[in-house]
Amino acid sequence: xxxxxxxxxxxxxxxxxxxxxxxxxxxxxxxxxxxxxxxxxxxxxxxxxxxxxxxxxxxxxxxxxxxxxxxxxxxxxxxxxxxxxxxxxxxxxxxxxxxxxxxxxxxxxxxxxxxxxxxxxxxxxxxxxxxxxxxxxxxxxxxxxxxxxxxxxxxxxxxxxxxxxxxxxxxxxxxxxxxxxxxxxxxxxxxxxxxxxxxxxxxxxxxxxxxxxxxxxxxxxxxxxxxxxxxxxxxxxxxxxxxxxxxxxxxxxxxxxxxxxxxxxxxxxxxxxxxxxxxxxxxxxxxxxxxxxxxxxxxxxxxxxxxxxxxxxxxxxxxxxxxxxxxxxxxxxxxxxxxxxxxxxxxxxxxxxxxxxxxxxxxxxxxxxxxxxxxxxxxxxxxxxxxxxxxxxxxxxxxxxxxxxxxxxxxxxxxxxxxx
Length: 420
Known about the structure:
mainly alpha; 21 helices; 70% helix; disordered N terminus
């Protein structure tokens, strides 16, 4: 009590009191909430594992290539019997057995240790694919949060978690899905500053699964070679990738085909430099990918398509005025991969749904950037003088987009499961 009284009775000099009050007044306008909540990676992995295991058990096989070009050869490797398509004929040899052998490891483990029937082996492999996909998604999510912030990160996570496109592709046994995994690792590693991971993941996607996936790594190469001048590191890790990925792959394929085979090169020669190319298997109109993309991502697709101009607009005119943190990479570069992919594949006459799988995560990232840009524009127009984070004033926009997207995606995924 005595201490309390002495403190209360202590007098502050008038001059000091004026200075203190002036300091308090001057500090008030600069106090603002600049933080934004996002799930921890440990929480994200639990959510994603739940979604991917559901996909492994409930998602149908949507592409005939998955059955005849991958499950059949895998059945041959595991059990000694399986159909062979022309793509595995030594005459063409455009598919790699290294990709099949990589996926045979969990099948061998399950069938040998547990002596389970083949149906259980099938579902076990799909569950392993779902688990791996979820791990890649969390790594990608971490990179997005670091490069773009928590708000864009949590929207990218939501779009990854519930989109019908990810429901279909996450456990599909086709190279496009493997390239999608590697997209998340390479772009995530790039955003996190882990250059060896970014280069090796791009190389793994290019050599083992689909050579055309290398175009996703173009912005990474531009960043390393032109912006950061890390030419030596780029060459070093590229050479390592060739030695430890491509060379073993060539040895494996040459053994199975009985002659020297470079499967990635054969795919390019057949699809790009042959007289007919892939067009003999059918062509589609320019609207095919827009319709298919909207079915699999609904409002995320148009949001993703306008991400680059919206993000550049906000960064150029609003970020400095709103005192917001700038991105580690310029938006024209960090969002460029999706647009390069669209430019190449949307203009090809032969179109298939699986050709978009590698950029599905980029749809989610770019759409998250668009949502954040719309929120910032709304905050600037209606609440720019309030000392609060832009997500607070524009929270209703985020909730509306999340609800519409979630309900539409879940209904579409359910319709696919029930064959509607």
